[in-house]
């Protein structure tokens, strides 16, 4: 495994699921991990687990939709460790329902946490990364951002927005040696997805397979087009 020795990472939504496993993986690679979430009890268990395995971790209660909590949390990390190398924006919630009946509060809550929360964390992480002229930002999106999913208009909109945010920030700070990428998982069994019905889970799995096939075809087409363009340029230069 690659080494992240002496690197400091922040993982949001780290109390369970993808965030928890990501924090463990980063620690196993040698990074010091600051884990953030609203559930202090679960964070304490995670930190204890990381420390027991010989790693270093720091828990901070943070609601990413709250700008003041985000600002205070990142300030703590920089003051404690003196650097910030990796940010994983994983915090997310669901408030599912058909769009025609979706309450404004449910729409706002998902957008605030899943999209605005990532933006707030990036804002706080960038000054330290820009000063160091190095950094890695990973946003956890979803396959539904590309495929759509009935009954999740708020979640799909937030995750699609997260992909757009990823592209925009990547262009803004590429010259500072800071990369920004989005990962779009298919269906993964986590406490957040446990509440979904079997039909929804099957649909998500099917959509994930279709998207993988679609992406593969697009990539092959792009490679073919690039090869064709290179041949055309070589011929024109003769």
Question: Would you give an account of this structure?
Answer:
Helices cover 56% and strands 13% of the residues. The chain has two domains: 8-192, 3-Layer(aba) Sandwich (Rossmann fold); 197-238. With 238 residues, it is an alpha/beta fold. It has a six-stranded parallel beta sheet with strand order 3-2-1-4-5-6, sandwiched between helices. The protein contains seven helices and six strands; from the N terminus they run E-H-E-H-E-H-E-H-E-H-H-E-H.
Order of SSEs = EHEHEHEHEHHEH
Q: Summarize the amount of helix as a percent range.
A: 55-70%
Secondary-structure class = alpha/beta
**Any idea what the radius of gyration is?**
20 Å
Residue-averaged pLDDT: 87
Q: What is the spatial order of strands in the main beta sheet?
A: 3-2-1-4-5-6
What's the CATH class label of the largest domain? Answer: Alpha Beta
Count helical runs.
Answer: 7
Instruction: State the CATH architecture of the largest domain.
Output: 3-Layer(aba) Sandwich
| Sheet with the most strands, sense and barrel status | 6 strands, parallel
What is the CATH topology of the largest domain?
Rossmann fold
The CATH superfamily of the largest domain bears the name NAD(P)-binding Rossmann-like Domain
Integer count of domains: 2
- Provide the β-strand percentage band: 5-15%
What is the terminal separation in angstroms?
46 Å
Write down the overall geometry: globular
Low-confidence stretches: 209-221
